[in-house]
């Protein structure tokens, strides 16, 4: 069994024109933030489709963070209108589906290094409290209502 | 199948052995899952962790080729605990006492050692199968494609009779047939030993009856099965082969052997809808028609004869198969006076008692299940009700035998072959289909993560799988669907044909080759070696 | 009904009419035409539903000038509006003949297979997600239990793509479900829950709640419940009701600023 | 424009699912499950849903062919049938009917299987008839 303490894996999609700059600035300014994020730079937060969010969770992410420009500041004028629609929708869907609180969207300008650090820290702590993404375990546990096979080829029996 | 598909809704227990039903017979798996949700027990025994195992009450992964031992072990436990149906055995069967003695050789501890299934799992399987009635057995090629195929089937039948499950609704021994009309091809006498309706060629009276209708007396000497024909080709006794809608250069075991046999033929005629590898070797190719291009009937796994209707014309000059056959018979000086498939069906009715009551009008869309002897016979959903076709059911004692080829130092793995969900047989049809080809484009071999780690194979790596008969290069898929020490390959892919590897050793009675177990080796392909077959 | 269809065909208001007729006792979709007017006598209502509008869509793609009449239930009419909203068909080319379907106080009969109890009797669901009709019924279950039950349902999937292939409003030429970078291919069940959630996302603001997907699903996944939920979110968040307007769903297009607020990390 | 929906049976596995071919202007464009069919009750698997694709495939054989100078070349039906018949006759005359084998098919119809084995047994005169039931 894995006895290491749980360290959340968070996929962070960050807009090139704002949040990514904030992350960069935080680094240059020596502002410490948790090492749990796997940053992915995108040209606009609107390029993140629900597919990417779902793919991240499927690949084992414990949380997904999206950072975009403040409304009105979008480099492409209206890209972030789409972002918030999608994230609002995905939040509702994931909450209902049973994956609550693991997706978060924040508007962070390239000057807001401190805000970036605070948000990442708080989101990481939130995920840490929620625990690991439950999907892989539910698909594997022999105690679940369906049966899983262990490595020896012996299938657990559950009535 | 002794019973019908609709019957599955009445089973209290379903025992699926040697069938990856969700992938190979998805619409039968539909009914299995429905039964599970209704509360029926599901027992799954398959060397791989198949999708159905996730929903099973008990699921075990036994070592490939140990089905007889597994089934005998279950029967041993059933008899030991007095769970068997003694009234049924007394009234409807014979040979139980000698059979019971053979079962003594299969105590659970020994069976666990042979099969790799834990004793407590064996006990649970036996108890569930024996105490939940009616219980049905479903099996497919995982049971039959072994050198012990016939024994495996007999063991299944023994188990069903032992618990009084043959001839009752919701029970039975139900082989799931692999091809759309394999049942019909057998019913129509597409076998060397029987005429249509399983009437033996050696029977004088039968041949006289056929002579009355056909005007020619059919020969009385038994013909050759496919493996015997291949042997005959090698020895020069078979000089011409007429292949209709089949691709032996994909489906036969040990393809090299087959190829050298085909070389020796004077004449190879192939009738197909695609330029299959077999057609590419042919001297004459007849362009035939696919399912939507002709009228006729298919008979499915539950013996249900169904109407097939023409929707479009065959492409180009291609002709309906029955027209090709009529023209060939004509050219050989034996004109067949059929204007449409229905005329042929009328003749079938005259010579095949089990189809006598069917007409195209009666078949409609629902079809009829044979035997259907008269025009007011509603058909027969369940066989052997009240008594067996032969009177009493016989318990055939069977004994465990290892596969013809077992793993050794040179070939340490057991290779099993079969189908995957998006493709079909040798892939001639499915790989011509855009969506299906997109779903799975390349050949692959499944290997357990532990074995993969030992051999430094990662998911997606190119590997070479070899046996004593040949080698192929293909992609590795690392998954715990297979047991450690086992490999699985689908045989749909010509460029890495699984049947280059398979063992032609066959069941002595049914001549069915052992596709499900042979010894194999696997290695990672390093550097720039091309993904081409190594000559052995 | 037969008279209307005959009149429409004779007068040239439509070229073809898609309805049903009985073939060997089974209701089978049939295309009635002016040339074979006598066939209209066989026109029948059908309890079994086929996506007639999907067939009409295929016909219009071959010949945009053809005028088609449709025997239409309420759900058919909704999907015709959706297809028109997404520029797949020209509304002027379709003429619907309304048939009695979804029940209401004003109607004495309802013709819909969805309302029929399955012949095998009620299915006892001990493991999966009970298909109650209201997607929010499952809120009574704790989050992990909801997740567990949905995962159970999705693991049954045999990847037939039937939900997509029968869907009257699925018209994309390239389907995300078949995208190699998005999803592992060649395995069943398909990646759980990715496969079904991606399809659910695509149904948001588009699903007409006809239930054909759930009927076609070989393994009984309560897809209608799932798609009702995603549609419900679109209605709640954006006030859009599928099939009621000629507009595209605001969830699927950029549009103007939608007044949504960020959710806080403290929730 | 013409559109027809033709009930038939799937030609992949042995389950025998009822399918509905949709034909627009003489071209197969789709496959649907028959909703009321006793076997599949309105569902199909991935192969069934795409049944029409292999039938309309451009790889389909459109002509009979004969091997000439090592190459398969398209010929007329009369030529192909005559070639097959005369060469079959030669083999039977020289080596007897039991030197011919006929592999019937689990993919063609009952009627065609019946004809194939009848051809083997009465016209050629051999019981060397088999098909891939074992494979």
What is the name of the CATH topology of the largest domain in chain B?
Answer: Dimethylsulfoxide Reductase, domain 2
Coarse morphology of chain C:
globular
Helix share bin of chain B: 25-40%
**What is the fourth-level CATH superfamily of the largest domain in chain B?**
Dimethylsulfoxide Reductase, domain 2
End-to-end distance of chain C, in Å? 57 Å
* Uncertain regions spanning at least 5 consecutive residues of chain C: 116-124
End-to-end distance of chain B, in Å?
A: 42 Å
Q: Report the sheet with the most strands of chain B, covering strand number, pairing sense and barrel closure.
A: 6 strands, mixed, barrel
Strand content of chain C: 5-15%
The total tally of domains of chain B equals 3
Q: Supply the number of helical segments of chain B.
A: 20
Domain 4Fe-4S ferredoxin-type (chain C): 198-228
Keywords (chain C): Iron, Iron-sulfur, Metal-binding
GO molecular function (chain C): iron-sulfur cluster binding; metal ion binding
InterPro entries (chain C): 4Fe4S_Fe-S-bd, 4Fe4S_Fe_S_CS, Helical_ferredxn
Comma- or semicolon-separated keywords:
heterotetramer; A: 159 residues; alpha/beta; Rossmann fold; 4-stranded parallel beta sheet; 4 strands; disordered C terminus; C: 267 residues; 2 domains; 5-stranded mixed beta sheet; 8 helices; 30% helix; globular; oxidoreductase (chain A); oxidoreductase activity (chain A); F420-non-reducing hydrogenase subunit D (chain A)
Quick overview:
The complex is a heterotetramer of chains A (159), B (536), C (267) and D (135). Chain B is α/β, with parallel strands linked by helices and 536 residues long. Chain B contains 20 helices and 23 strands.
Mind explaining what this structure looks like?
The complex is a heterotetramer of chains A (about 160), B (about 525), C (about 270) and D (about 140). Chain B is an alpha/beta fold and about 525 residues long. In chain B, helix 3 (about 65-80) packs parallel to helix 9. Chain C is of the alpha/beta class and about 270 residues long. In chain C, strands 1, 2, 3, 4 and 5 form a five-stranded mixed sheet that branches. The longest helix of chain C has 16 residues, at about 225-240. The N and C termini of chain C lie far apart (about 55 Å). Chain D is of the alpha+beta class and about 140 residues long. Chain D has a three-stranded antiparallel sheet. A two-stranded antiparallel ribbon of chain D has the order 4-5. Chain D has a two-stranded parallel sheet with strand order 6-7. In chain D, strand 6, helix 4 and strand 7 form a beta-alpha-beta unit. Chain D is extended. In chain D, about 70% of the residues are buried. The model of chain D has no long low-confidence stretch (mean pLDDT about 95). Chains in contact: A-B, A-C, B-C, B-D, C-D. The interface between A and B is medium-sized, with 11 and 20 residues. Strand 11 of chain B pairs antiparallel with strand 4 (about 65-70) of chain D, so a sheet runs across the interface.
């Amino acid at each position: 069994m894995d006895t290491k303490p749980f360290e959340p894996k968070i996929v962070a999609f960050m807009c090139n024109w704002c949040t990514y700059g904030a992350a960069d600035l935080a680094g240059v300014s020596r502002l410490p933030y948790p090492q749990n994020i796997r940053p992915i730079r995108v040209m606009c937060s609107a390029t993140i489709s629900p597919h990417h969010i779902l793919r991240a969770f499927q690949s084992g992410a414990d949380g997904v963070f999206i950072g975009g420009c403040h409304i009105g500041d979008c480099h492409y004028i209206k890209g972030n209108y789409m972002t918030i629609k999608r994230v609002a929708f995905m939040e509702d869907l994931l909450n209902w589906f049973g994956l609550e609180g693991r997706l978060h969207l924040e508007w962070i300008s390239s000057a807001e290094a401190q805000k970036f650090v605070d948000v990442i820290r708080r989101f990481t702590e939130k995920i840490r409290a929620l625990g690991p993404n439950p999907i892989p375990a539910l698909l594997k546990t022999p105690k679940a209502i369906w049966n899983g096979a262990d490595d020896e080829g012996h299938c657990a029996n559950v009535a | 199948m002794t019973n019908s598909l609709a019957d599955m809704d009445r089973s209290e227990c379903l025992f699926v052995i040697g069938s990856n039903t969700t992938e190979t017979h998805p619409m039968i798996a539909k009914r299995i899952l429905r039964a599970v949700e209704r509360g029926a027990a599901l027992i799954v025994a398959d060397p791989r962790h198949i999708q159905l195992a996730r929903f099973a009450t008990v699921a075990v992964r036994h070592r490939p080729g140990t089905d007889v031992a597994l089934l005998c072990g279950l029967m041993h436990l059933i008899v030991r605990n007095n769970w068997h149906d003694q009234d049924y055995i007394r009234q409807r069967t014979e040979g139980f006492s000698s059979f019971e003695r053979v079962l003594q050789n299969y105590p659970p501890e020994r069976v666990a050692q042979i099969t790799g299934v834990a004793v407590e799992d064996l006990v649970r399987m036996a108890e569930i199968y024996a105490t939940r009635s009616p219980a049905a057995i479903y099996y497919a090629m995982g049971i039959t494609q072994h050198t012990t195929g016939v024994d495996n089937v007999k063991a299944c039948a023994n188990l069903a009779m032992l618990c009084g499950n043959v001839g009752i609704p919701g029970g039975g021994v139900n082989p799931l047939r692999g091809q759309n009309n394999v049942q019909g091809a057998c019913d129509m006498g597409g076998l060397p030993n029987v005429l249509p309706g399983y009437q033996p060629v050696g029977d004088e009276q039968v041949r006289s009856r056929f002579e009355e209708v056909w005007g020619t007396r059919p020969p009385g000497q038994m013909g050759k099965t496919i493996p015997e024909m291949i042997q005959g080709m090698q020895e020069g006794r078979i000089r011409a082969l007429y292949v209709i809608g089949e691709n032996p250069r994909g489906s036969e075991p040990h393809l090299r052997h087959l190829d050298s046999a085909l070389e020796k033929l004077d004449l190879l005629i192939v009738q197909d809808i695609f330029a299959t590898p077999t057609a590419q070797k042919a001297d004459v190719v007849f362009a035939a028609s696919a399912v939507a291009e002709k009228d006729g009937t298919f008979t499915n796994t539950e013996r249900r004869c169904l109407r097939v209707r023409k929707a479009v014309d065959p492409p180009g000059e291609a002709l309906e198969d029955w027209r090709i056959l009529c023209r060939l018979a004509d050219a050989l000086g034996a004109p067949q006076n059929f204007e449409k498939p229905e005329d042929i069906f009328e003749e079938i009715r005259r010579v095949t008692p089990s189809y006598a009551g069917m007409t195209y009008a009666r078949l409609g869309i629902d079809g009829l299940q044979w035997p259907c002897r008269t025009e007011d016979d509603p058909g027969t959903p369940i066989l052997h009700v009240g008594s067996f076709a032969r009177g009493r059911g016989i318990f055939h004692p069977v004994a465990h035998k290892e596969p013809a080829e077992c793993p050794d130092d040179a070939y340490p793995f057991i290779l099993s072959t079969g189908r995957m969900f998006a493709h079909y047989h040798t892939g001639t049809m499915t790989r011509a289909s855009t969506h299906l080809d997109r779903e799975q484009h390349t050949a692959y071999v499944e290997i357990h993560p532990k074995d993969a780690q030992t051999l430094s194979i990662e998911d997606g790596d190119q590997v070479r799988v070899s046996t004593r008969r040949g080698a192929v290069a293909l992609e590795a898929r690392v998954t715990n669907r297979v047991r450690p020490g086992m490999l699985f390959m689908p045989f749909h892919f010509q460029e890495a044909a699984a049947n280059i590897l398979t063992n032609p050793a066959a069941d002595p009675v049914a001549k069915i080759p052992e596709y499900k177990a042979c010894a194999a080796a696997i290695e990672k392909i390093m550097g720039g070696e091309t993904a081409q077959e190594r000559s052995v | 009904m037969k008279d209307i269809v005959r009149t429409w065909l004779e007068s040239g208001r439509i070229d073809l009419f898609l309805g049903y007729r009985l073939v060997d006792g089974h209701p089978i979709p049939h295309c009635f035409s002016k040339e074979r007017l006598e066939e209209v006598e066989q026109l029948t209502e059908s309890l079994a539903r086929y996506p007639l509008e999907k067939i009409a869509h295929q016909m219009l793609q071959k010949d945009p000038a053809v005028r088609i009449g449709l025997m239409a239930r309420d759900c058919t009419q909704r999907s015709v509006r959706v297809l028109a909203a997404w520029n797949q068909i020209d509304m002027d080319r379709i003429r619907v003949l309304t048939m009695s379907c979804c029940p209401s106080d004003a109607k004495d009969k309802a013709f819909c297979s969805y309302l029929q109890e399955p012949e095998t009797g009620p299915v006892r669901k001990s493991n999966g997600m009970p298909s109650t009709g209201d997607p929010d019924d499952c809120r009574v279950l704790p989050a992990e239990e909801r997740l567990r039950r949905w995962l159970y349902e999705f693991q049954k999937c045999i990847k037939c793509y039937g939900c997509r292939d029968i869907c009257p409003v699925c018209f994309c030429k390239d389907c995300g479900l078949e995208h190699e970078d998005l999803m592992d291919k060649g395995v069943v069940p398909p990646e759980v829950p990715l496969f079904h959630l991606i399809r659910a996302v695509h149904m948001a603001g588009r699903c007409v709640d006809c239930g054909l997907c759930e009927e076609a699903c070989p393994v009984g996944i309560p897809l209608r419940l799932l798609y009702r939920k995603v549609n419900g979110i679109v209605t709640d968040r954006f006030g859009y009701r599928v099939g009621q307007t000629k507009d595209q769903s605001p969830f699927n297009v950029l549009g103007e600023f939608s007044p949504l607020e960020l959710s806080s990390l403290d929730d | 424009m013409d559109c027809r929906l033709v009930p038939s049976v799937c030609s992949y596995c042995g389950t025998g699912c009822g399918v509905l071919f949709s034909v627009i202007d003489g071209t197969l464009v789709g496959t649907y499950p028959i909703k009321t069919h006793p076997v599949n009750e309105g569902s199909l698997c991935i192969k069934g849903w795409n049944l029409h694709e292999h039938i309309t495939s451009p790889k389909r054989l459109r002509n009979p062919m004969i091997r000439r100078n090592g190459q398969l070349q398209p010929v007329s039906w009369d030529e192909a049938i005559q070639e097959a018949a005369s060469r079959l006759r030669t083999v039977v005359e020289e080596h007897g009917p039991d030197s011919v084998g006929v592999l019937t098919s689990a993919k063609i119809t009952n009627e065609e299987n019946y004809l194939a084995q009848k051809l083997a047994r009465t016209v050629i005169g051999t019981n060397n008839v088999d098909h891939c039931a074992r494979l």
